Amino acid sequence: MDKTFKYADLVNDLANCPPADSQEINSNIYRYIFEDENHENNFKPVLLIKPARVNHKMFDLDEMKCRGYALSVYDSLDNSRKAFVNMQKRNKNFGNNVGEYVAEIAVTSDDGLASAPSNSNTNRGHFDFFEFTETTLRNNIILVEKLRP
């Protein structure tokens, strides 16, 4: 298995990207997706969905740019549900931008590296997943659940 990172050409010049404490995992991860499991943005990092955002002040630091080229995921179904509710309170259109479903996805050490999960109250269990080139997470979906009625 080739363990070159997807988007390596975009992250190789960023300091500490992926972060040094990132690890291979053999676990299930949870990601917001659209109803259509083949939607083009389901497994695309935010800075590839909206490339112009790289110029936003939020992405001034290499650390944030690096995270922008990783997939935003959660460590449990419960944490992904709670975060979805919290983010919808701040942005009513949140589900329109990331999808209104959450997919449970099986990943192995051959799929990529995971940063350490966050313990903040609003984003508990959130982490970044840096895929390897040959990874196709769509093929690893176990379960899809609708998040809002």
Spans of at least 5 consecutive residues with low confidence: none
- The helix/strand series, from N terminus to C terminus, equals HEEHHEHHEEEE
- Structural class from helices and strands? alpha+beta
Q: Which outline best applies? A: globular
Q: Tally the helices.
A: 5
User: Rg, please?
Assistant: 15 Å
Q: Main beta sheet: strand number and arrangement? A: 4 strands, antiparallel
Helix content: 10-25%
Termini separation: 40 Å
Order of the strands making up the biggest sheet: 1-5-6-3
Strand % is: 15-25%
What's the rounded overall pLDDT mean? 90
Beta-strand segment tally: 7
Explain how this protein is built.
The chain has 149 residues and is of the alpha+beta class. It has a domain at 24-40 and 71-146. It is 23% helix and 23% strand. It has five helices and seven strands; from the N terminus they run αββααβααββββ. The radius of gyration is 15 Å and the shape is globular.
Keywords:
149 residues; four-stranded antiparallel β-sheet; 7 strands; 23% helix
Give the gist of this structure.
The chain has 149 residues and is of the alpha+beta class.
Map the helices and strands:
Blueprint (H helix, E strand, L loop, with lengths): L7 H4 L11 E2 L2 E7 L12 H4 L12 H7 L2 E4 L2 H14 L3 H5 L2 E7 L4 E3 L11 E6 L9 E6 L3
Antiparallel strand pairs: 1-5, 2-4, 3-6, 4-7, 5-6
